[in-house]
Amino acid sequence: MRVDFTDLAPEPIAFLGQAAAIQLEFFEGLSRAVTTAPDLGAKEGLSAAAGVALRKHHALIAELRREGVEPVTMMQPFAAATDRFREITSGDDWYELLLGIHVTSGILDDFFARLAEGLPSDLGSRVRKVLDEAGAGGVLVRELSSAIADVPGLADRLALWGRSLVGDTLLVAKSALRTGGDDQAVEPVFTELIAEHTRRMDALGLTA
Amino acid sequence: MRVDFTDLAPEPIAFLGQAAAIQLEFFEGLSRAVTTAPDLGAKEGLSAAAGVALRKHHALIAELRREGVEPVTMMQPFAAATDRFREITSGDDWYELLLGIHVTSGILDDFFARLAEGLPSDLGSRVRKVLDEAGAGGVLVRELSSAIADVPGLADRLALWGRSLVGDTLLVAKSALRTGGDDQAVEPVFTELIAEHTRRMDALGLTA
């Protein structure tokens, strides 16, 4: 099964362009979370997480340069979809923004790490090392858990919001695949991505 | 003169707290510039500059920890003033935001680098090394120059905007001094800061 799935991995340059565009999007989301944070303590943790997303983005950009292509050109095909994705996942307030980043980066980081197994081995191991760096998860869980404990009704609203994000996020994942994701080999991977998502929601006490 | 001026340097912890708060503010401004950039090329350069500001912020935070204090507590006294400063310097559009960051970070980076000469020597040399890293200047000049060449009337509007920022920025600088800046030793330094500011505006073809 795994071999079938990694056969669906895109060409290295398309992979790197899309992965770099997505990390830039996570950086932008985390930056907005820093700017709109209610206190300096939250800013501290979130700015460190924004720094990690930026580092991942620039490491992927460096891999594109190493492949001899212009990074901006290679991210361009994903710009419109990324903008649309941001609009859908930004949410109505700071809490929804935080959960939006947590849910979408959780699913897409898992997905791109798996997909990286289909890259040429040297590149694949470098990319996996880049994507493996622990990012925003810790601080997002910390801030969200404390808000859910403090704000009446927030848990229900966030559970609904988290559920609404999964479909669009999986569409982004599918768009990265050679076949556009219309392949039986994809289903077991998506089932695992959703199981991981459910675990992340459970950890926040939210029904997935 | 220089000796007199550095005598006005605040206690190390107050210096580090304010300098860290200001770098966080530059990071937030640059992040907003990334998020609202008109194209991916601009995003690339600005996101790298945002990364530099964030690195400076975190290096100053690390120095606060080394002094045995809680960084968030030490930045807190500067939070309200920094928020107000942001409101004043953000501008009405992307170009004003870019020039706002260029003018205010130009003046304040110069100022804090000079002030760092009044810190205990080990700390002072580490802090100067942190602040010396080339930051946003290059990309801001590149983006602003090309916009000024392309957009009719922009040069006049930006010249006016740049002038309006100097007073508030110097107030932030003065607030860092032991005496609140009411000292003859300060004047020659401020004259130099304004001369550097004029050079930066000249380089953009803007009347200071």
From TrEMBL, chains A, B:
- Gene3D superfamilies, from UniProt? 1.20.1260.10
Domain (Ferritin-like): residue spans on this chain: 16-173
**What is the superkingdom listed in this entry's lineage?**
Bacteria
User: Under what name is this protein listed?
Assistant: Ferritin-like domain-containing protein
Q: Which organism is it from?
A: Agromyces intestinalis
List the top taxonomic levels of the source: Bacteria, Bacillati, Actinomycetota, Actinomycetes, Micrococcales
